[in-house]
Every structure is written in C-alpha cells, then in structure tokens.
Amino acid sequence: MTARLPFFRLLLVAALLGLASTESAAQAAAPPLEPPTTGAATATAAAANDPLRFSLSLEGTDRPAQLSVGVQIVLLMTLLSVAPSLVLLMTSFARIVIVLGFVRTALGVPSAPSNQIIVGLALFLTFFIMGPVFDRVNNEALQPYFAGQITSNAALDRASLPLKDFMLKQTRTRDLEYFLQLGGFGPTAVKDLPMRVVIPAFVISELQTAFQMGFLLFLPFLIIDFLVSSILMSLGMMMMPPNVVSLPFKLLLFVLVDGWHLIVRSLVQSFSF
User: pLDDT (tens digit, 9 = 90+) per residue, 9-55?
Assistant: First the structure.
C-alpha cells in the first residue's frame, strides 16, 4: 500500500500540470476584449437585437400619403397571384385561344396542335396585340412611380386607364348597359365607368365574338363533311366512317389556302387599335 502512494502522487501532479498548461494555452489563443463602442455602433447593435417590425405609415404634411415598403410588397405578391386571371379576363387572350381551339376541332384533329402550342401561340399573340397598351402603362404609370413623381394610388389609377380604353373598344354597348342596370347605376359617362362593370361586359363580348368567328370557321369544313358523307352513301359505303375520308381533304384545303396565316391575321385585325 505504501509502495503505491508515490505512484498516485505522480499521477496527480501530472494531471495538475496538464490542466495548467491547457488553461494558459486557451488564454493565449483568446483574442483580447475590445473596448465598448459608442455612437453608431451601439445603435446598430441595438437595432440588430430588436425584433422585426411591420409598419403602415400614411402621415406627412409636405407630400402625399405613401404606403410602406412592406405593404407594397404584399400588394405586389397578391397581384402576381391573380395575374393569370387578369391576363385571361382583361386582354385579348380569351378570344384568341377560343378561336384556335375551334380551328383544331373543325379540322377533326383534337390533339394536333397540342394544348401547349395553342396556349403558347395565344400568349404571344396577346403580348403582340397588347403591346401598345403595356407601353402606355409603363410610360404613364410605372416609370413616374419608380421615379417618385406620383404615389402608388395615382400609379394604379393611371395604369387602369389604358386597359379600360382597350376593353371598352371591344365591348358591346348592350353588355355595358346590362351590367350598369344590374349594378343599379344610373346614366354614367364612359370615363366614369367602374372596372367592376367594364370587366364582365368585356368578357361577355369577347365570348360572343369568339363563338361567331368559330361558327364561320366551321362552315367550309362542314361542307366537306356533307359532300364526303353523300358520296359514300351513294357508293354504298355506309360502313366507312366519313371522318376518315374527309380528314385528308380538310387538311389539304387548310394548307392550300394558308389557313394559319389567314386565321392569325383575322384575329389580329379583329381588335381595333
């Protein structure tokens, strides 16, 4: 027992020496403490520790009331979420895509061209037709707003004017009168028409125009179907489906008259600028 005591003493001394060396190395590696800063650094640190705040400021006497940046971002995200509906209901997209769908059905080929091609062509034609309107919105509303010359409310009012002018040019008077009567409005000037009256009237007028154009597109192909059916019945080939025989003739007629060019030109010219 007495022989083991020096050994334990040696272990205890070695452990104490290792602990002392570790503490001295840590103190040497630790950077020296910087003196406390004042002024701007203190304000920055305090602002960093503060929680995020959302403010709505509409005050000020020397300039018009403005929405805060946070509110503007929320409004922008909301606008982006409803942008597809705005494109469908406030531009020329509805008429174009409906007419192109009628062309595909009249030809008797429900999968050629595909839906992606029809929608893509309708979108690019919409951007082409609505180009002057978008330029007016950019020049009269967006650029002055980004330059700080007008407020957000004024920019919204200016941006709606070109769209309203475009929709009113394509809207029938009876549709406007119907929605004015339905909404309980009295005699209203054209410049004072609210958007909640102009938009549904415009959509109804666009559907009416698109179906009229689709009916005219169906007529030549319908005549070919009648002729082929009559010929097959006179030959006694009643078991032969008429669509199988009439489809090549309809495609040949469509190609010979340069059908896609005529349809696109008619669609573009149907919108009065």
Answer: 544 444 444 544 444 444 444 444 444 444 444 445 544 555 555 55
Read off the tokens for 170: 């394509």
Residue listed under structure tokens 């002055």 = 144
Distance of CA 154 to the CA centre of its chain: 22
SS (H, E, C) the chain: CCCHHHHHHHHHHHHHHHHHHHHHHHHHHCCCCCCCCCCHHHHHHHHHHCCCCCCCCCCCCCCCCCCCHHHHHHHHHHHHHCHHHHHHHHCCHHHHHHHHHHHHHHHCCCCCCCHHHHHHHHHHHHHHHCHHHHHHHHHHHHHHHHCCCCCHHHHHHHHHHHHHHHHHHHCCHHHHHHHHHHCCCCCCCHHHCCHHHHHHHHHHHHHHHHHHHHHHHHHHHHHHHHHHHHHHHHCCCCCCCHHHHHHHHHHHHHHHCCHHHHHHHHHHHCCCC
d(C-alpha 48, C-alpha 56), whole Å? 21
Count the neighbouring beta carbons within 10 Å of the beta carbon of residue 171.
22
* Dihedral angle of Cα 140, 144, 150, 154, to the nearest 10 degrees: 30
Beta carbons within 8 Å of 191's beta carbon, 6+ residues apart: none
Q: Supply 1's token pair.
A: 């027992």
Taking only the tens place, the pLDDT of each residue in 145-196 is 777 788 877 888 888 888 888 888 888 888 888 888 887 777 777 777 888 8
252 contacts 234 by C-beta, under 8 angstroms: no
Q: 117 vs 111, which has greater pLDDT?
A: 117
The percent of residues above 70 in pLDDT, for the chain, comes to 72
